[in-house]
Automatic annotation (TrEMBL):
Record key words, sorted: Bacterial flagellum biogenesis, Cell projection, Cilium, Flagellum
Protein function: Required for flagellar hook formation. May act as a scaffolding protein.
Family annotation (NCBIfam families): PRK12813.1 (NF009453)
Record organism: Roseovarius nanhaiticus
Domain FlgD/Vpr Ig-like residue range list: 110-174
Membrane-spanning residues: none
Alphabetical list of InterPro entries matching this protein: FlgD, FlgD/Vpr_Ig-like
Protein name: Basal-body rod modification protein FlgD
Amino acid sequence: MEPLAIANGLTGTAALGSGATAEKAKTTLNSDFETFLKMLTAQMKNQDPLNPVESTEFASQLAAFSTVEQQVLTNDLLTGLGTQMGVLGMGQLQGWVGMEARVKMPVAYDGAPVALTLETRPGADLARLVVRDATGGIVHESSVPATGGAYSWHGLGEDGMPLESGTYSISVDSFQGDELLGSDPVASQARVVEARLSDGQTMLVMEGGQIVGARDVLGLRQPDAG
């Protein structure tokens, strides 16, 4: 009778540790161990007495199961540590609530001018601001300094009239002559109103409703008085 393929049979158990709860993993592991013992006992009872399985093969199978068991427990430990670190990061970022963060994100427009930071490509001699609404349609295009930097967007449409209040995606297209070098989203500032944990990542909710990753924040400052 061939030796048991225990290591391959338990691959699913190892994968379980990374996504399931520790209790479920332990229950599955105990069940697998009982199955392993039953198969091992059956193998010993039904082996050919003239060609018995070497004791080293039994030891190898036990070692394989032990390795899988350790992998499951290690995965559970790493999952728990990852969750704890995420909670710790969120706790630290609670101090960001109420501050203004500069992030490359859609812009919330409410009728007032919006301060932007433009990023253009090296070598650009022409840059155009492109504003898109929630459907992705272009509602405004205009020339901006090819050097980039601070810029005040007044929220005007193609007809020169203020756009409706809402969220707009704004980017800068950089050109060298007639060649498009690339398109880059602008950075804008908004007040942080909440820090939350989502799928192990710390996310920030901005005053305009945008949700961005804490790691995407480019700058942070106290809001202007008044």
